[in-house]
Specification:
Layout: E1 4-5, E2 8-9, E3 23-36, E4 44-48, E5 54-57, E6 66-77, E7 82-100, E8 105-107, E9 110-112, E10 117-137, E11 142-161, E12 166-186, E13 194-216, E14 222-227, E15 231-247, E16 252-266, H1 269-275, E17 290-304
Antiparallel strand pairs: 1-2, 3-6, 3-17, 4-5, 4-8, 6-7, 7-10, 8-9, 10-11, 11-12, 12-13, 13-14, 13-15, 15-16, 16-17
Length: about 300
Amino acid sequence: MALAVAGTAVGSLPAKAYQAFPFEFYAELAPSIMSRSAPTNSGNILQANPGGTPYFTGDQLSFSPSAAIEGSFGFGVLPASGAFDMRFLYINSSASTSFRSPSDFIGFGFTGPGNTLFDVKDDTALSSWEGSWRQKVLSDRLTLIAGIRSMSIKDVLNGLLNTTVARGEYTYNNDLFGAQVGVEVAVLDPTSPFQLNVIGKVGAYTEKSQGGTRDYLPAQTLGVEFQSGLVTSTAYAAEVGIKGAYNLTDNLELNAGYELLFIDKVALAPDNAALSVVNPALLRTQMAFNSLTYQGFRVGVKGHF
């Protein structure tokens, strides 16, 4: 015997319409491969002394694609067609190269003769957390997004001279916190097991940056250091992505896609190494900024409970 409400059999309607608990929980984990942009127009990090002929610039750093991890979890409020969403992203990128100075040089906090061996490495770590409310409108084809986001970016540039003789290190930390808004568009019918979604978000952030340089001579013994104070500024970021998905069941989704994250203003180590190539003490009172871009591909699995 089928029970009925207003002449309609309950058994003929989707189960979610009659859940006593009006929430749906979900979680997603998505490994990815991301590439970091090289510093542009950063200037000379190492140059001829005298003369200033460029021997090494930030543009010569080539960041290899690296593994990253992304995930989200949250709960949907079914009667409101909305959801509270928490998302995290972690990327660790590195670039390295080796070369010899053609002649007498200045840079990395040192001066020295030609034919000096330089082993250079730049490591950048980005971690991001965001909390958003996602509201579906227009028959679930359009989702409006509003929330807050926190990002931390640490960039460390090391220049090792003749393997063990000396080392110049530049370390810069950036902490960003602010608000973001965005939209997600479902290209295909949301009731189809196949999905194709396009998402875009923009945000404005208060950014707190701090850094400086340390010279080691020999390579592991601290010599001279110059550190900046805390610099507060405003930064803007944009993120876009496209994701295709297939619903294996009502509760399990497999997906893959492309993502791009752009931040317009970050204190990066190569730019500040170039700023202070002749006089490292400048870093006590000055700081250089540049843009930063990440892009790559991700695959993920998402479960609904």
